[in-house]
Design brief:
The protein is mainly α. The chain folds into three domains: 214 residues, no CATH class; 65 residues, no CATH class; 36 residues. Helices cover 60% and strands 1% of the residues. The chain has a two-stranded antiparallel ribbon.
Length: 412
């Protein structure tokens, strides 16, 4: 849909030259993470082991029960293990690696117990023994700490980009700050990485004795990994052009927007500072009276950004009306899947639409006043719940001697 020659966005821009094209920032974050996975083979190695853990506990109630028993014996709070770096938001990947971090002693004990269980066949015992060895290897503990730190930062960024009140300029500021943080973390390890490195030095992590692992185990280079994440984040998110030079005017658009915010004004700027950018924005958003906006901008600058005239506020509202992420659409899809289930296939489209509207924008129950709707319902001739004038249906009870024994058991 975003093809440069015949994509939907390109065709819309041909029909409407002033349209503002914006690829969802949350999805571009996922693309940046996918680029890191492609570039660094050690991430794929780590992901494959995490997928094995997910497959082990998502398809077997017996394995989940054994893991719960191991966690209770170690007084560890059990967390759900899901998939990482797949089609879901990056925040779900952090929840998974954080669950493995918290459940690490219970996971190792379960693998060890299962590998020594004589009731299992030899192949199964060797499988659990291999998982225990890989889980307690230096490479896995190192990768687990690095991935926890990185995914925690990226998940918080993803949540920020999905907020309803986020604007283009605030999102740009948040992304730029996150890139600087990731670059700094390449020199200064995070909390998870420090704990994992300490465990490797002491050869013991959360009470589990570690081993050197196999030569095929790949360990992430801390500095290279965080620099790669920062680089891909900058290429994907600070330029709508993706991995190619900025051809969509994203950087030019951001520079134009910065003149509307006092924190970006340079010291000692001349009297005409920002007027060219304001005129360009008025043209982009089809403002009918750009001269009035320009005079309002001069007054806005004279007040040091404290008093914004109504004419300039119109331009700012137009800028902030651009959604930077499609999270609202994703929330709608999620609610639709919860409402329209196989067990409710008889719902009509207008009913589903009304239920979606209530779930997405309706007030919570403590702020909902049902009295007007109840009065409207009763005024249309419907009976209320306490109406005693309705006739009671007489049900004939059939005696079934063959079922008396079963009924007696159920009622005893």
């Amino acid at each position: 849909m975003l093809g440069r020659k015949s994509g939907v966005a390109s065709r819309l821009q041909t029909m409407f030259p002033n349209i503002t094209l914006w690829h969802c920032s949350a999805h571009r974050l996922e693309l940046a993470v996918a680029d890191v996975v492609k570039e660094m083979g050690a991430v794929n190695h780590f992901k494959s082991l995490m997928d094995k853990l997910y497959a082990l506990y998502s398809t077997s109630n017996k394995n989940r029960l054994e893991l719960r028993t191991a966690a209770e014996s170690l007084d560890v709070q059990l967390c759900k293990i899901g998939r990482i770096l797949d089609t879901r938001w990056v925040a779900s990947s952090f929840r998974t690696v954080d669950a493995v971090w918290k459940n690490y002693p219970a996971l190792y004990k379960h693998f060890q117990t299962a590998s020594d269980d004589p009731s299992r066949d030899g192949i199964t015992r060797r499988t659990y023994s291999g998982l225990a060895m890989r889980l307690s290897s230096h490479a896995f503990v190192n990768n687990l700490g690095i991935m926890c730190d990185a995914l925690q930062e990226l998940s918080e960024l993803s949540v920020e980009l999905q907020k309803r009140d986020v604007t283009i300029i605030s999102a740009h500021k948040t992304i730029s700050r996150e890139i600087r943080v990731l670059e700094a973390m390449s020199e200064r390890p995070g909390r998870y990485t420090e704990l994992s490195q300490r465990g490797i030095v002491e050869n013991s992590f959360q009470g589990v004795t570690l081993n050197g692992g196999k030569p095929s185990d790949k360990s992430l280079d801390h500095k290279q990994f965080f620099l790669t994440v920062a680089k891909n984040l900058e290429e994907r998110m600070l330029s709508q052009g993706g991995r190619v030079p900025d051809k969509t005017g994203y950087n030019k658009f951001i520079e134009e927007l910065k003149v509307l915010y006092a924190q970006y004004w340079p010291d000692g700027a001349d009297a005409l500072y920002g007027e060219t950018e304001v005129e360009s924005l008025c043209q982009r958003f089809n403002i009918t009276n750009p001269r009035a906006v320009l005079r309002a901008y001069r007054a806005y600058r004279d007040s040091d950004g404290n008093d914004m005239p109504d004419e300039l506020r119109e331009l700012l509202v137009a800028v902030n009306s651009i959604p930077i992420a499609s999270a609202e659409c994703e929330r709608g899809f999620s609610q639709m899947n919860l409402i329209c289930t196989p067990h409710r296939g008889s719902l009509l489209i207008p009913t589903i639409s009304s239920l979606l509207f209530l779930n997405l924008v309706g007030p919570p129950l403590d702020k909902f006043n049902p009295v007007p709707y109840v009065r409207s319902w009763v005024s249309k001739g419907h009976r209320n719940a306490t109406d005693a004038r309705s006739k009671t249906r007489n049900r004939e009870r059939e005696e079934n001697p063959d079922m008396l024994v079963m009924w007696n058991i159920m009622s005893s």
